Amino acid sequence: MQAVQLQLAREEIATAQVRVGIGHDTHRLEPGRPLLLGGVRIAHDRGAVGHSDADVLLHALIDALLGAAGLGDIGEWFPNDDPANRNRRSSEMLAEVLSALRTQGWRPVNADGIVFAERPKLSSLKSEIREAVARLLAVPNSAVNLKAKTGEGVGPIGREEAISAEVVVLLEREEASNTLEG
Ligand code: MG
C-alpha cells in the first residue's frame, strides 16, 4: 500500500520552476511627442522621448522578463544605435522577447507595475492599460496589476520632465520530476 502511495506521489510531482525579475525605465517628457503606456496611446500634452516608441512601461516589463529568464537586458537585445530599432514599437520587442522565453519553456505568471508620472492622472486609464498588457503577455487580466504614483511635485517626475516605470514579473516553467526530496 505504501509503495503504491509513493508511486502516486512520484507521478503527481511536477515541479514548477519559478523565477522573478525586475525592470525599471525612465524617459524624458517633451511636448509634441506621443505618450504610450503598455501599448495604449494616452492623450496628453507631452510624450516620452526615445529611440523606439518610448513606452516606458513596456520597456520596464521587457527588462523584468529578460531578468527573470537570465537573458540580459533590453539594451543588449535592442541597441539604441541599431537603425532597425528606430521608432520600433515596444509591443513588437516584447513579442520577440516572449517568443525567446517560450522557446526556453518559460511563461509569464503575473506582472505588477508602477508608473511614476505627475500627469496625466492614470486612475481612469489603468484598467485599459492592464488589459492591453495582459493581452500582450497572454495572461488573464487579473494577472496584471498597475499602480500609478505622482512625484508629489518634487524632482524630475514632479516637474513633469520625466516618466518612469517599475515592473516585477514571475515566470514559471513546468518540469516533470522523478525524484522525491528527502
Ligand atoms: Mg526605455
Model description:
The structure is a single chain. By secondary structure, the chain is an alpha+beta fold. It has one domain (17-181): 2-Layer Sandwich (60s Ribosomal Protein L30, Chain: A), CATH 3.30.1330. It contains 6 helices and 7 strands. Residues 25, 27, 50, 56, 59 line the site of magnesium ion.
CATH superfamily label: 2-C-methyl-D-erythritol 2,4-cyclodiphosphate synthase
User: What is the H/E order?
Assistant: HEEEEHHHEHEHE
Q: What is the helical fraction, as a range of percent?
A: 25-40%
Q: Which spans of ≥5 residues are poorly predicted at pLDDT below 50? A: none
Q: Provide the domain count.
A: 1
Bound molecules: magnesium ion
User: What class do helices, strands and sheet pairing give?
Assistant: alpha+beta
The CATH class assignment is: Alpha Beta
Q: What do we call the CATH topology?
A: 60s Ribosomal Protein L30, Chain: A
Keywords:
single chain; 182 residues; alpha+beta; 60s Ribosomal Protein L30, Chain: A; five-stranded mixed β-sheet; two-stranded antiparallel sheet; 32% strand; binds magnesium ion
In short:
The chain has 6 helices and 7 strands. By secondary structure, the chain is an alpha+beta fold. It has one domain (17-181): 2-Layer Sandwich (60s Ribosomal Protein L30, Chain: A).
Question: Topology, pairings included?
Answer:
Layout: H1 2-12, E1 14-31, E2 35-37, E3 40-42, E4 46-49, H2 56-69, H3 74-77, H4 90-103, E5 107-116, H5 126-137, E6 144-149, H6 155-158, E7 162-176
Bound molecules: magnesium ion.
Magnesium ion (MG) binds next to strand 1 and helix 2.
